[in-house]
UniProtKB/TrEMBL annotation:
Biological process, per Gene Ontology: carbohydrate metabolic process
Keywords: Glycoprotein, Glycosidase, Hydrolase, Signal
Protein name: beta-glucosidase
Gene encoding the protein: LOC108735469
Organism the protein comes from: Agrilus planipennis (Emerald ash borer)
EC numbers on record: 3.2.1.21
Amino acid sequence: IWVCRLILAVPFPEDFIFGVSTAAYQNEGAWNTSGKGPSIWDTLTHERPELILDRSNGDVADNSYNKWEEDIELLNDLGVQFYRFSIAWTRIFPDGEPINPNQEGINFYNNFLDQLTSNGILPMVTIFHWDIPESLQKMGGFMNPRIIDYYTAYAKVLFDHFGDRVKYWITINEPKQYCQEGHGEASYAPAINISGVADYLCGHNIIRAHAAVYHMYDDYYRSLYDGEVGISLSGHWFEAYTRDDEDAAERMRQFYVGWWANPIFSSEGDYPKVMKEFISKRSSQQGYPWSRLPEFTEDEINYIRGTADFFGFNHYTTFMAQNAESDDLTVSYANDHQVIFASDPTWARGASAWLSVVPWGFRKYLKWIKDTYSSPIIYVTENGFSDHGGLHDPERVQYYKQYMEALLEAIYIDEVEVKGYAPWTLMDNFEWFDGYVNRFGLYGVDFSDPNLPRKPKDSAKYYKEVIKSRRLV
Ligand code: PNW
């Protein structure tokens, strides 16, 4: 109790920065104007609307492509020091082919960055937030190793045109969701649904693509612009259900975050040992002549290790994890990790099926990252709570208050190097398969009004006070 009291009175460290997050497909709209080509999200929402809870799409979304000046006003109103947003690949290379970048797309982001920086807001740019050009997907997308060249060519255009103003780059948002849930399962585009195979192929190339872009920045752009390059990894905290489940909970953390973090942030590099062991054992029992988890060469391990200036961490929730080792030989990611997990029924819940409110899991996760990866610099690049909308959102205020309290404990008591915090998300937007049903915004958007007016929720007012006083109010 004393510790809590003290934490509430302590200000955030002086060099700590507050921001807020969004992503292109979820906010921009203008899906087929100004030279933009279709991405896999345009295709999926148009061809398979039944997959989206309200059969909606991001054709218009928040229309941020046209209302961007108003959005910057919201950022000014909040008082954030940085803004995390993503660039739509298909505005730069409409069909993915790395020739003749689309000048209108470049102009759009140039104007946006000028206005942002002239308002004193630091841009944190996500290069890839899931919206790969449709035509690259037709050639296998991230399952085709040639994607590394396509992705690098795209990133080069961003560095060339925007590098002078962008201090923070995020190569990829949440490869776990994109590769495992979008390739292993069908929970996100491109909805490949080949678990235990397609997810690992996608993951292998995504990690190599990340490393290639990091090295390109390091070799050619760092000396010019002195920016930082990281990656945003999502992670639930997995808490052991009983004492006997400690190994299972740790194995699940490795299969969820370690998959990406071990190759990049650990001192030895490569996939986590437990992943390699479990997947290769299971593959051979199933009769595969190889492990379904691809192997990095020694050179690749060294090339990938250390390719991040910061650890972008997206965190929302916690699950209780239980060992589920069995002899079932079905090929799947779940059958590879052999852990089952569930929320504790006593926890408060958000509107998203997977979201419960467990602030202590956030603190434990931050400490785990510090201990497992030798104390990297961490920016929390997402954290948030979903409901069904409305400007009075006491549950979201409570969520932010409790999670930021856990964050302060991680910083001051556990001495974790967290340097910034960006809630998900600025305003209600297209929440992937949940359409516009589940809302994460600090600002509410009235989607029934064609002008899409934005209004501050109570949580926006709360966050604004926190930023202003640099204390939990
Ligand atoms: C993130 N989960 O995705 C994404 O980066 C955002 O684009 C998205 O809108 C936001 O979180 C809210 O969903 C996640 O199942 C999706 O735990 C699902 C999970 C976590 C993050």
